[in-house]
Design a protein that fits this description.
Blueprint: H1 2-9, E1 22-27, E2 30-36, H2 45-53, E3 61-64, H3 78-85, E4 89-92, H4 104-111, E5 115-118, H5 122-128, H6 130-138, E6 142-149, E7 154-156, H7 168-179, E8 183-187, H8 188-194, E9 210-214, H9 225-229, E10 235-240, H10 245-254, E11 257-261, E12 263-264, E13 267-268, H11 270-279, E14 284-287, H12 291-299, E15 305-310, E16 320-321, E17 338-345, E18 348-354
Parallel strand pairs: 3-4, 4-5, 6-14, 6-15, 8-9, 8-14, 9-10, 10-11
Antiparallel strand pairs: 1-2, 1-3, 7-16, 12-13, 15-18, 17-18
Helix pairs in contact: 3-4
């Protein structure tokens, strides 16, 4: 199962709206097939592994990180493929929360006389499938908030200079993290000030995550890097329903996909932004700020994972804070996360924090 989980992670960021699943087939204590969900979500991991195993799949043990699907979509269900192949046992890490499956896949297998076991390395599988599970249960993708800051929590000097607070190894790590998410999201202020491309570069990776900009008024420069590449690399603009119609038309003609979202206190409602992104099919969002967008996500309790890159320099109180105002008066009201990893990345320190999961459903 550990190998199946490792294989499944290869598809992260490249399979949405489908989950990134891994599958290993074992016959007589020998691996005869392995697979993971392919780009765009199909073929599924089980189908890839069965094709590799061929006739040896008969009487085999199958280890899969998520319950095999039971419904007919663009392809037949994987549960039926396993039945047709004559496997003897299926060990699945966790059930599928998609209401079209949710126990039905396991029941199909049992009805066919196949032994089904559940729960092996389930905690790891829940962590890997967090985005898919949140989308199917809560209607929104998982949100990872990444911040690169000085030791005193600043993301830029008072004049706005921010390149570069962290060193090249940290920036390279961020590109690898982008590649494992469905979308990279920033606020309109960051898009205007930094003119980013939000792409994965210098890693030999062809696939690019969807770029997402949250901008109520859609007042984004039409000669920017994002505008220039909108037809070639997916770009989603989340905007208010009161955005200027000429801007909506211009960005649509440039190739962007526009998602109108509702307002909350004269700003875009971050919960509706994520709901709209979930409806669009995204499961894993990598948010890179800026401070106002980060604050709005914290206020709405929508940050599931924090990744910080801290550099050994101080900018001072006049610098731009990594998170905007949260209007917190008492410490118990502050959002808290649990540390899960910390390591040196070149001269900087990376630390990863996760919101405590209250249920295996999310």
């Amino acid at each position: 199962m550990a190998l199946a989980l490792s294989l499944g992670r290869r598809g992260q960021g490249n399979t949405w709206p489908n989950p990134a699943v891994g599958c290993v087939i074992v016959k007589d204590k020998r691996i005869v097939g392995r697979g993971w969900t392919q780009p765009s979500g199909r073929p599924h991991a089980e189908v890839v592994a069965l094709a590799q195993a061929g006739e040896q799949a008969k009487g085999s043990d199958v280890y899969v990180t998520l319950e095999p699907c039971s419904h007919y979509g663009q392809t037949p269900p994987c549960a039926q493929a396993l039945i047709d192949a004559g496997v003897a046992r299926v060990v699945m890490a966790i059930p599928d929360s998609d209401p079209r499956v949710d126990g039905l896949g396991a029941q199909m297998l049992r009805d066919a006389g196949i032994v089904v076991e559940t729960g092996l390395l389930g905690d790891q599988a829940f962590a890997d499938q967090d985005g898919f599970l949140r989308r199917t249960v809560m209607g929104r993708p998982m949100v990872t908030l990444k911040m690169a800051s000085s030791f005193d929590g600043r993301i830029a000097t008072r004049t706005g200079q921010s390149q570069w607070i962290t060193a090249e190894p940290a920036r390279r790590m961020v590109h690898a993290m982008r590649s494992r998410h469905d979308g990279v999201m920033v606020g309109g202020g960051t898009a205007r000030h930094d003119d980013p491309t939000l792409t994965v570069r210098d890693l030999g990776i062809d696939h690019q995550p969807t770029r997402i900009v949250v901008s109520r008024r859609l007042d984004l420069p039409l000669l920017s890097n994002l505008a220039r590449t909108a037809k070639d690399i997916p770009l989603i603009l989340c905007h208010g329903k009161d955005a200027d119609k000429s801007s909506v038309k211009a960005w649509t003609e440039l190739g962007a996909h526009l998602l109108p979202c509702r307002l909350l206190k004269q700003q875009l409602d971050p919960e509706d932004v994520l709901t709209q992104l979930g409806k669009h099919g995204l499961t894993r969002i990598f948010c890179e700020g800026g401070s106002a967008l980060a604050a709005s996500l914290f206020k709405a309790d929508l940050v599931d994972q924090l990744i910080g890159f801290t550099a050994g320099l101080a900018i001072g109180a006049e610098g731009i804070a990594s998170i905007g105002s949260l209007e917190i008066d008492k410490l118990p009201a502050a959002p808290r996360f649990s540390l899960v990893d910390t390591r040196e990345i070149g001269p900087d320190v990376m630390h990863i924090w996760k919101r405590e999961r209250t249920s295996n459903a999310v």
